[in-house]
Amino acid sequence: MLNKEEKLKGSGGLIKSPSGSLCPYYYMGGELHPLKYGSYFNNKDKLFAVIKAEEKYILKSAGKNNRRIWIDLYETTLVNGIVMLVLATIFAGIVLGLLLGFVGQFFFLVGIFPALVGIAGGYVLAQAIKKFKMPNKAVAILMGILMGVMIYGSYTYFDYLQFQNQLYDAMVTFGDPTLYIFKDMDKATLTNFLLQETTGSTGLIGYWKSTVNAGISIISMGGMGSNFPFNPLWSTLYLISEFLLIAGFAIKGAWERVNRPFCSGCEAWYDEGKYLASFEMQDEDKVINAIERDRFDDLKNLMRAELSKPPCLVLKVHLCLNCHNENPLLELSRLTVGDKGIPKYKRCLRGLITSSQLSELEDKLRS
Ligand SMILES: [Zn+2]
Fold it and tell me: CA-based angle 219:220:225, to the nearest 5?
């Protein structure tokens, strides 16, 4: 029996080009040759191979009738994933930093706001790492730091601009003579001049130093708390801890994503996982032992009747979204309930098995 493609060739003399378009394809009074370069995601080798093949094919078969070529690149990434990831991080970092600066003018929750933007930055990073397929631990750390620097930098920059305005307004209000001496200076130049005088540096660094020297005051919401400024050392530590909070949460978000299973063969993420069985916490060693030695009978005996009710060990299988059954990934995690009732998974074992091992295991557990 012929497949569909062969039938087409046989009956109408229709031929397909290397990228899979019908040639010639008559369209609006001319010949159309679509170059189907879509759905190669970031598989450069495959994409370039088909481009080369199309090139040869086109040179060999000259069009007769007003041939037009169009290119379909849907779902193909031409730009390097890491470049896109860096751009996304810079953009999101600036937006989040400005947001923090903007909200912070009105009220600021110490520790909480920096943590929240850090978590948001980590979420954006996780999404970008997923989209641009970068399951790499070094990338997670570097991008987390970059995210922290961008958020913290643009947040400090926002404050610095505010500081310029406040300084200028104060000088106008108090009729500061400096204003009349340097009357053609704009706000930024004037601020930099004064920062240079008082701290020895200009720009963001000068602003940072002057904030530290002035001492940061923390005013409690209830109004009862202390309102005396930190000394310069504590102010410095406070500003550094803000940065560490932001960067720490950003790295955490990225880290969780890069640790998800990824099929390097076809550059695709594994699925969310299918539940196989749950076990008692205290049987961890026995369960790991049974999995490592393919003793599925032992696993069956250890298996709990109750489904995944924490605390317990959960065995899941993940399949690559692209090649499905090639190399299923077994994952054993400790499932507990966190402080706020949120279930928490902590991985204790992960390993690839073959698809026949998986069906054997599934049959045994179901029996
Ligand atoms: Zn795969």
Answer: 95
